[in-house]
Amino acid sequence: MPKLYPADLFSMCADLPAKRVCARDLRAPHGVSAARLAESVVAALIDEVTLSPKPGLVDLRGSGAHRDLSWSLMCTSATALQPAFEAMARAGLSILDDRRLRETIGALGREGEARMFDATGGINTHRGAIWALGLLVTAAAQDLDRLSAADVASRAGALARLPDRHAPATTGNKGEAARRTYQVGGACGQAQAAFPHVIDVALPELARSRCAGDTETAARLNALLAIMASLDDTCVLARGGRDALRTLQHGARDTLERGGAGSPEGRRALKALDRRLLDLHVSPGGAADLLAAALFLDRLAGLDAEHPAEHPSSEND
Ligand SMILES: CC(C)(COP(=O)(O)OP(=O)(O)OC[C@H]1O[C@@H](n2cnc3c(N)ncnc32)[C@H](O[C@H]2O[C@H](COP(=O)(O)OP(=O)(O)OP(=O)(O)O)[C@@H](O)[C@H]2O)[C@@H]1O)[C@@H](O)C(=O)NCCC(=O)NCCS
Ligand SMILES: Nc1ncnc2[nH]cnc12
């Protein structure tokens, strides 16, 4: 594929069926545009990296188990990805044929990765996030009348299961090698199963923790710990193998059992887990991406409530 530049991300969608674009634009009462969806994705990515203290991960305190990442680099990367997410949302609003949509967002996702590397000087900040949130923002745009987390994740899962004729047969990435070595589903499996760690794990824990009166920070940390407690995170497997993954999962479960981030004992366990991950030099980047996905879907529920559909059945496209 020829090299593309940001403006091309938009023009790739220029040949989309005009009727569909108009029909979606008529839904202005929603106030939910492609730009608004992409802004919500970027906000979720910034919320994720800013959340502190996260075990092993980049946060406001520092670089976690990374030498080349920082909070400001992650924010630069998230902001640079806004046009890519907006182009994916435009594609979701406009392309009726699901196979064509899958291939279009595949190209936009690969182009988004290239933009990420341009913005970060070649450092991998958000590859997994482009994948997960790219699918979710597209799926959200596909049906603005059904923006519940479960509906959006289900549409994203269906897209992830479709073939993309232009995807390289092999990525050569560490996650791919870890999937083969350890026989786990990784980022692809998570998406194809419609994001179970977001829908059945993170969002219920976020709601439970908020209801229990935890602060928003503690509720988000607990949602992250809940993901870590059972995810086969290929970032952890690639750097530290099965033993490191067991340490992470056990430590996250133990922290939640001790009351989670909202309790003094839980906070002590969280600190101990952070120290263990730093000693092992492992970083649960996959869990961080899925927390960002949960925070995006949580924001979407807010957008939906702010702008309820006024003419839900008047569309006939
Ligand atoms: C399908 C793709 C995701 C490609 O996947 P692939 O198999 O090639 O593997 P990776 O790219 O290595 O892994 C995918 C990233 O997904 C995150 N992740 C890991 N485990 C899971 C999981 N169980 N569930 C969900 N997500 C998971 C993770 O991303 C985060 O970590 C990255 C930092 O990783 P790290 O290893 O620390 O850093 P590196 O620099 O790579 O190594 P070090 O030297 O420092 O150790 C960071 O990016 C986080 O986001 C995994 O890295 C997908 O990319 C693809 O096919 N794309 C094509 C385009 C497309 O079709 N798009 C569709 C619409 S967007
Ligand atoms: N906060 C974070 N730290 C390290 N890797 C990440 N990948 C996505 N978010 C991350």
UniProtKB/TrEMBL annotation:
It is an enzyme of class 2 (transferase). It comes from the Bacteria. Its EC number is 2.4.2.52. It catalyses: 3'-dephospho-CoA + ATP = 2'-(5''-triphospho-alpha-D-ribosyl)-3'-dephospho-CoA + adenine. Belongs to the CitG/MdcB family. Involved in the formation of 2-(5''-phosphoribosyl)-3'-dephosphocoenzyme-A, the prosthetic group of the acyl-carrier protein of the malonate decarboxylase. This is Probable 2-(5''-triphosphoribosyl)-3'-dephosphocoenzyme-A synthase.
